Amino acid sequence: MPPHRPPAAKPQHRLARTALACMTAWAGSAAGQAPAFQEKLADAALLAQLRNGGFVLYLRHGVTDGTRADRAPQVDLNDCSTQRVLSDEGRQQARELGLILQRARVPVGEVIHSPLCRARESAQLTFASQPQLLRAEPLLAYTANLTSEQKKPVIAATRALVSAPVPDGTNRVIVAHAPNMADLMGYFVKPEGTVVVLRPLGQSRFEYLGSIPPSHWSTLLPPNPKH
């Protein structure tokens, strides 16, 4: 006797199963929405690329004094007493980052910073030997206290700065805030003092390559030779 085979499914039944599978997959995708941002640590190969220039380094300002909050929405950009500011640890962290970048031989051609005191001071301390590179950009202001409508020009300005091409042999540094990057690409940069490496692609496009938290520099750079 020939082996028993189950009857073939009718075409309409096969179509129904296919449709159900597609609907299930779509529902799962819709429920999950966009995948969560995945942070990755920069490696030595990426650091070597930075020495050739052409990248954007987005630096979240240094460690701040958490006991002093911004007096939103009445923050006075010219009065640091109305803002959260760097702590002594943050100031030392900024100075050390400047020395690290020099030791790592990372060339910097321009430093664009938020107008808030904590970002401005971070930029000034990190690049104390190159003050001519610094300029403030009002549209890099802290977005956490803004409405969705108020955020739009800040997000647009941030996108323009991280996507505009950078000449070979130099890098662009942006010193700003974590909420700005969260609004731009779903990445809340932490801890304070972290450097985010981006490849500008032009036409409002950019690529995230890796992050360097303060504690990660010791992994990327060999210890100083003993004298």
TrEMBL record:
It comes from the Bacteria. This is Histidine phosphatase family protein. Pfam families: His_Phos_1.
